[in-house]
Amino acid sequence: MPEQYEWGLTTGGRSNLLPHSHVYRRVVTLQAGTTYHFQTRNLGSGWFGRPDPVMYLVRGNDIVAFNDDYTGLASEIIYTPTATDSFRVVIRAYATATPGYCDVYQGVGGAAPLLLDSGVMFGGTYVRVRWKADEWFETGIGKLSFSAGLGGPAGGEDPYLFLIYPEHAVGSKLYWDDDSAGNLQSKIVPPNGGTGTIILGSYGRYTGGECVLGLVGQSYKAPWMSPAPWASVAEPVTYTPTVQRYMKALERKKSALDELSPAERDQEVLELQRSTLPEEEMRLQVPRLPAVSTELVRRQEDFEERYRQLEKDLAQMSYDERAAKLAHVKREAMGREYSEPEGRRSEDEFEGAKRA
Length: 356
Fold this sequence. Notes:
Elements lengths: L17 E5 L1 E7 L5 E9 L8 E7 L2 E6 L8 E4 L5 E9 L6 E9 L5 E9 L2 E7 L3 E10 L14 E7 L7 E5 L9 E2 L5 E9 L6 E9 L23 H17 L4 H15 L2 H5 L10 H22 L3 H16 L10 H11 L1
Parallel strand pairs: 1-15
Antiparallel strand pairs: 1-16, 2-7, 3-6, 3-8, 4-5, 4-7, 8-9, 10-15, 11-14, 11-16, 12-13, 12-15
C-alpha cells in the first residue's frame, strides 16, 4: 500500500488506527497590495522518504495560494492580497511517508525573505474521502504516544483535523478543527456533500499519536474509515490518572496557546508534558513508525534528477509557469499511486502555460 494511506471506508480493528503528526500552521496579517514571498528552506531528514513539504495560504476557508515544489522539493508561494486580512500559512507533508523539518521564510514587498520560523515540523496523514450531506468527520481516542524530551517525533494524542474540498488548488476550501468532538478530539461538519481530502494532523509537534477516524451520519451508521469513536475495539485504551490530568491541563491552556507562535506553542506543550508526566510513563508509549518503500524513494530521486536537468530552463520561467511545470513533472515521476490526491488541475494549468 502506498505511503499516503489510501484507506477504504470499511470497519476494522486495531490495525485501522491512523497516525497523526504535526501539520505546521501560522496566522499572519497581510496588507493589501503588498507582495509576500513565503519559502521553505533547509529541509531536514524525515523518518521515511525524503522530506517533501506542501504549502497553502488560506484566507478564511479559501485557499488563495498553493505550491508543492519550486526549488527541488521545497515549496514557495508568491502572493499579493487584494484586501488586508489575517491569513493562515499551512505546511504538510506531500505523503504520509515524507515528513520532515524546515525553516520558513517570509519576504515583504520585494525584499529578501527573512526567517519566520526555524526547524518546524511538517507531517500529517491524508485520506481520500467522499461524504454525503449531513455527514461529518470525527476523530476518536486511539493510542497515546509520548516522546517528550526523548528525541522522537510524537507526543500526547491531540489530533488536529483538516478537510480540503474539492482539491489541492487555488479556489478550493480548507476547513480545520481542533477540539469540537470533546476530550481533545476533532470534528468537521462539511457544509454539503462532496469529495476531497482529510489531512490528519496534530495540535503541535509534541502531541502526535494514533487515533480512529470516523465518517458519521445523522440518521444512520455510515461506513467507517476506522472504528467509530464509540465502537468496541479489541484493545481499548485506558489512560492513567496522570495522563488524564495532563490532557485536561492541555485542554485548559488551549486558548492561551493559540495566541503563541508555533515554536512558542510547541515549547509550552513540551514543558507541560515534562512537568506533568514521569519519564517512565512516556517511555511505555513508543510511537509506531511505518516503513517506507524503496520504490517511493526511487521515484523521489527520479523527480529530483529531472529537476536538476530542468533547472536552467526553470530559472527563465515566471512563478506560475515554473510551479505548473514542476507539478506536471512531479506527477510523471511519482505516478498517481504515490501522488497527492488531487484532480487534473495542475496538469491543465501546465498545458495552458505551454500554449500561452
